[in-house]
Design a protein that fits this description.
heterodimer; A: 166 residues; alpha+beta; Chemotaxis protein chec; seven-stranded antiparallel beta sheet; 7 strands; 38% helix; B: 149 residues; alpha/beta; Rossmann fold; five-stranded parallel beta sheet; 5 helices; 5 strands; 39% helix
Amino acid sequence: MKMQLIQPFISAADCVLASTLQGPAKIGDLSMDEGGSLLHGPAVRIVIHGEIEGCIIVDMAPETAARVATTLAGEDIESSDQLISETVFELANMMIGNAVTLLNDHGYQFKVLPPEKHIQNKNVQSRTDMEETAIYFETSCGRIFLNICMRYNPRPRSDRMSMLTH
Amino acid sequence: MKSFAPLTRREDSQPVRYLVVDDSVFARKNLGKMINTFGGEVAGEAGDGCTAITEFERTRPDIVLMDITMPQMEGIEAVERIVRQHPEARIVMVSSVGYQDNILAALQKGARHFVQKPVKPDVLYEIIRYVLTDEDAHKQPAPAGEACS
């Protein structure tokens, strides 16, 4: 996978986590492979279509999710509370939203679909022609994992010419 | 959370009433907390663009905080439909997806401003203050209505 596609996700996640969790987020190992990753707990998937195609999954262990929810809400939240999964959704939404903003500002055209719950232990990879990149961030609430499974779909030549002439 | 000098309506000095539109319950709750620190009140909430239109008609808020990426009907389409009927509507887009195309589309449809998530209370406060005092609201007459499908 092109590093220029991955870097915005790292930068955006780093920035959003540091801002929302009010502490530094240290970037952990980055791995690239062709197999799917097992999820650690509540997970959210965001699908993108267009010049870049694929999905991004944010997940974390349940206890990390509870701490994140408490930090973001500014109050204690019971572990059974629906708000925990809602918080994970919103955190994922902010991380991925900021990343796709950076990608779009670099000239990539695509559409982002609303976040959806990702099923536990379901293989991240949905297409054999997409490479997966897994990375985690060490935060004050625990590890937050990011799985990026994307490919670059170059625009047809006619589209590129059209862009040049407008 | 930091508190701010209360923002009030010009005409009657009453608290500003907000409609909060976001498919995330957490985001709505979080914005609601900020609104409280601004001295305002949440008049209504919606989780998608279609409900936002209905809630706008019901509550007639002073300010709408509108997410973009939502199920059923996205925020930009909801802005277009609300502003078509109510050119005076003051809508501020609040979204994590803040690329130029989205911002331009929202502004062209009638949104007054854009705030990128994660929202900083100071930034949102200043934007709302600006939007409340912006008199250059009614740019186009309202054409015939359109049903929300």
